[in-house]
Amino acid sequence: MRFVFHGASGHLVSLVGDFPDWKYPVSMPEAPTGTYSVELRLEPGIYRYKFLVDRRHYVDPPEGSIIDRAEGMANGLIMVGGTQPPLYFAPDRRHVVVYEDGRFVVLGEIDAHAEIPTELWLRGSTAMGLCGNADGFDLEVIAARRVPIIPGVERAGVRQFRAEHRLPTCADLSGPRGSYVVGPFDRRTEEELEDGLEDELEDELEDELDEADGEAAARAAIWCSFTGYPSFAFALPAPRSAFGQPPSWVDGAVFYAIFIDRWRRASPEPHPRAQPRSKRSTRDRFYGGDLLAITEDLPKLVELGITAIVLTPVHPSPTPHRYDGLDLLSVDPLIGGERAFRELIKTAHMLGLKVVADLSVTHVSERHPAFVDVLENQAESAFAPWFRIRSFPVVPFQTFGNYDYFCDRPDLPLLNLEADSPARAHATEAALRLVEMGVDGLRLDALNDAPVSFWAQLRAQARSVRPDLLLLGEVVTDRAVRFAEDRGIDAATDFQHREAMIEFFAEDRIDAAEFWNKVSFAEHRLGPFDPSFRLLFLDNHDTERFRSLTKDASRLPAALAYLLFRPEPVWLTYGTEFELHAGLGRVQRLDDAWSERLPMPEESAVDVSRHGAWIRRLTALRRSVFARAAGLCCTHALGRKLVLERELDDGWLRLTIDLENSARCLIGHLELERFEPDRPEGTECSVLLSSKNTELLQFTRGPPALRERAP
User: Fold this and answer.
1) Could you give the CA distance from residue 638 to residue 351 in angstroms, rounded to a whole number?
2) How buried is residue 499: exposed, middle or buried, by Cβ count under 10 Å (0-12/13-18/19+)?
3) What pLDDT digit, counting tens, does each position of 81-130 carry?
4) What pLDDT does 670 receive?
5) DSSP letters of 385-400?
6) 206 contacts 199 by C-beta, under 8 angstroms
7) Which domain does 508 fall in, by range?
8) Residue 547 belongs to domain with CATH number
9) How many domains does the chain have?
10) Quick one: which of 538, 537, 541, 539 has its CA closest to 595?
11) Percent helix, strand and coil across the chain, each to the nearest 5
């Protein structure tokens, strides 16, 4: 795909966008005068982009270009291997998925002013024989399928939609070949299909098949047509396999993130650089937390309802956060060393807790011995291939230097993790060392700073050692799909959902309807993933704490109720149970929230009863009740009031959050001051949880005779 920018001569022009990440511009050389261009090899997909001209962003000129405004800003769009406007669909992992049981899900978008298609027509390529593809799907039998399209939310002039169907697999043919589903309520025999619907589709697609390249048609696993729009062929994706799925323990998990240095210290030996815990948190200030203290406090986390802990990096480092390692193969003696780390893992497992270790191997400290050797010996250094060096001599600490580094931090040189680099083998060894020590998961820091092939290889090697290992990815954008499943990760941080929660629960910048529209739209754009793929959080060690963004103390319990009611795995930052926060408001950028990286307070100095009890109650309900619930739907979103429901076998759950209400209700009573539950005939209602602005009700259907009248 070729990108061209026309302008005056002599400018510095780059391309930024989803290839692969917005923070890394792609240079566009000038040739001829005033014309800047670059050619990229892109997989099928829909990509957002801008031109960067002398450090200022420009959207592609509107004439003839496609502009996307759904994220609140204008971006150019390029469509590769899919449809054309007003329909937006490409056969990539963000828009189509096939499961091993044959379930087939398609996601798409259409301009709001255009007519939304009512059906998706699928036709197996006749060039492929019965069970002709290696993935086991019967392409003859899927001929002539008509799948209804379900409209989704509309935002910024774009309407989303989805279609879902089950394709017959070769395993389905082990018995008699009888009738099968054509539509949601329509079953026809194979003979009827051959005489009816298949002929109808043959006529519809005949022109496209005749005009298509014969070889391409033979390779295509499926022909796709949205009613009212042109047909096109695409290869059926490989089924989502067990290898690409997260371990079962992630379902409903409650992660608790621990900044090791900010915990208390239990070792009798003082930390040589530790400062009083009353001093303000800064980038270079140590407080001396260690692994022994965390081990001693694990029972308290179990009582809180935590199921897994996530530790910041354990490697030796010149800074308290340890994301700039000096030795990726050892555990820092200042936090207890390898012995203390193994003891922590052993104790956690005895208590039923999982342990996830942060793996930061895309960049290292400028004091790392390999980089020091490069500075001393330049091109003659044996470690020069370890780094992404553009030219010699390497000059350290220059903002626009001749080597690649993390963001705007020349003190954090990036490792070269391409396939032929010795640093790749070293980084992989560092990961496998943590797995060998017994961790249950790895949090992969800064995924966008390494090629997908590295994460895919790391996953394959780590999973061969520990099949139930969790690979949790830090992804700031909505393009986590690039690293998903066999390409690297089981789950990804959902920053878009976090931003919407802050705007609704903390800052009152959006109302309930806008909030639900925003999270639904973002979830759709992330791709067709199960809930376990999205890790939800109110804050983490790179962001402001939720409580710092609101003056209303009741908002945190309401946000926690929403968070823990949802089916996705959730992340709580250390100290949330104490309402720990700096109260300084928004930070300018991610990873610059040092004021929020506070030392863990002593329990005697804080009120642990209120928020701790609330979290314990929510996590207990999550284990005993929410775990039995299915789905999640919004039944009311108006003003500051949001009502969500989840289904149970014998009833349903209803969570009501009213951020305008100030009345307080009591747990266990149905006579609520502000909310009289709408209780259908034949049901019983009980209050599971109640606070200033939050109510959680459980509706239970009565005897069978009454259940028929209950929804």
Assistant:
1) 43
2) middle
3) 889 999 999 999 899 988 877 788 999 999 999 999 999 887 764 333 33
4) 32
5) GGB-B-SSS--TT-TT
6) no
7) 253-362+422-626
8) 3.20.20.80
9) 5
10) 541
11) 30, 25, 45
